[in-house]
Amino acid sequence: MIDTHCHLLPALDDGPAAWDEALELGTELESAGVTTIVCTPHVSRRYPTAEDDARARFREARDRLLEAEVPLRIELAAEIAPASLLSMPVDECRRRAIGERHVLVELQPDTPAGFPAVAVEHLRAHGLVAVFAHPERCRAIQRDLAIVDAVRAEGALAQTVASSVAGAWGGAVQHAAWTLLASGRVDVLASDAHRARGVAARLVSVLDEVADRLGEAEVRRLTVEIPVGLLAAGV
Q1: CA distances to 29, 65, 110, 112 from 211, in Å
Q2: Please, which pLDDT band fits residue 57 given cuts at 50, 70 and 90?
Q3: Do 7 and 197 form a contact (C-beta atoms < 8 A)?
Q4: Does residue 193 have a pLDDT over 70?
Q5: Largest separation between any pair of C-alpha atoms in the chain
Q6: Looking at residue 193, what DSSP letter applies?
Q7: Residue 148 burial class via C-beta count within 10 angstroms: exposed 0-12, middle 13-18, buried 19 and up
């Protein structure tokens, strides 16, 4: 699995507080079959993670994983909140994208129904593509899945996350996640892991259940084939 949404880097946002926790998280994900992690620290009003800070922490994470003999490839991007996306300089947005083209855009519970379309147009004007993180958590999308249809028709991607599928955010979010998956509206499945606490078992359970319901080929598409394209800026 290539995990395109993970808060591995410590002491930047609501992910691990220290390096020992970050290494434990990396070890857990590797044991669950993850080979590559895209580190996506929040960029938001609450967590205004500076680009230089993220890059410094990323370089140290790479060194520490190597020293600890944890066989993970890591890449750096960001999970960008709606207000931060619209105010961020375009060059910085590109540098913080997955593969320098695919921008991970956070959808929050109270994100307005019209925002995804605005984000798509904003990014497309600069040759960038929106990847919407956990649309199942957005109440507007729970009420109207056509919002996802509209932005995907314009080239955007939808990324659901294992914690939602497992029910960690409640029944409404879990139902929306499964509905999106079963109806073919999801392009990428990621962990959105913040802590080690049981993350390996939860991720394996989610992947097994998706395989049981939708087939192994769909799991591979969601966790390997599309993520490879994101990292290569080829989707």
Answers
A1: 18, 30, 31, 32
A2: very high
A3: no
A4: yes
A5: 47
A6: B
A7: buried
Q: Which of 95, 34, 98 is nearest to 65 (CA)?
A: 34
- Which residue carries 């691990």 as its tokens? 16
Mean pLDDT confidence for 99-110: 97
11: amino acid identity, one letter = A
Distance CA 188, CA 168 (A): 19
> Whose structure tokens read 């060194």?
63
Domains of the chain: 2-231 (3.20.20.140)
- Give me Rg for the CA atoms of the chain: 16
Show the tokens assigned to 69: 């003999």
SS3 215: coil
CB atoms within 10 A of CB 210: 23
Phi, psi of 189 (to 5 degrees): -120, 125
Residues 218-229 as b/e (b if ≥16 CB within 10 A, e otherwise) read bbebbbeebbeb
Here the tokens at position 108 are 């929050």
Q: 29 to each of 19, 35, 102, 196, 216, how far by Cα in Å?
A: 15, 8, 23, 8, 19
pLDDT at residue 66, rounded to an integer: 97
CA distances from 206 to 145, 161, 183 (A): 22, 10, 17
